[in-house]
Amino acid sequence: MSTLPLAISQCLSEGLAKISTSSQVAKIIIAGLKEQSSPSVPTIIDTKKIGRVIQGEVHIRPYKSSDFATVRDLFIDSNVGPDSFAALLARDQRTARISLFLYSLAVLGALLAFQPHRRTLGIALAFLGVLGSAVYLSIPYFVFKGHLKTALNGDMADIPKTFEVTETDDESELRGKNGFWVAECVGMNGEREVVGCVGMNANSPGATQIGSTTSELRRMVVSKDYRRRGIAQRLIKAVVEHAKERGVEQIYLTTSSYQDAAVKMYLKLGWAVKRHFNPTFLFEKVYIYELILDVNTCKL
Length: 300
Description:
It contains eleven helices and eleven strands. The protein is α+β, with helices and mostly antiparallel strands. Residues 146-294 form the N-acetyltransferase domain.
């Protein structure tokens, strides 16, 4: 039997390298987006110090302008990082029907390339299978990159303006229905690190469609190194308390089946499913949930 032609060997090796490194697409996107952060605002997070800081107390407070870079980085990681919706969707795509078809196409092409009279066809099929797999597995990151840029250039570009945060000297105040909070971990040696954030916006399209006494929970993020410590619940409690003080009767939010832990937490805290639908994304169904919380009956 003849050896695999040089052309198909190069095609497969280059293509398989693209597939094996598809998970690195998220890292490239994250690095590129983080470079856009304002250089004048220092990033607080230092993963080398997590062992010390994680023992400290966590405080919930209104957002300050000095939190901008860290909040931005947390938001980017939550959208295209290793545990993000995009990453989980890409993981499931590896065993999706279209992926299996493309893998089969690549293998069939490789087998045909051994046959002299079908060598050209085999090379073409193998190339299409490998390249198609690489592109298909990378699509979620590029789709979410577009969504992420829209958010970063929208409400996340000017948090004080969007969420009505007023700063006086070193303090921040929330004077309207809107608000934005951060979870700050204070280490034993006094070091401070922002490890989570959440916003509430009564002017969002989702909130205004429901009614004037409804606000939307937005930009809920907790650092992956600090999850399962009750920080998300404490952030939500701050939102609910603010909502009660400002006459907000309902808090609306949207999430997906890929945030299973978040969905369970919201339901446990009193949110009810307003409606759900299952659009098809890249030939795979994703369940989107719209949840609503009655602030007056909430026990948080």
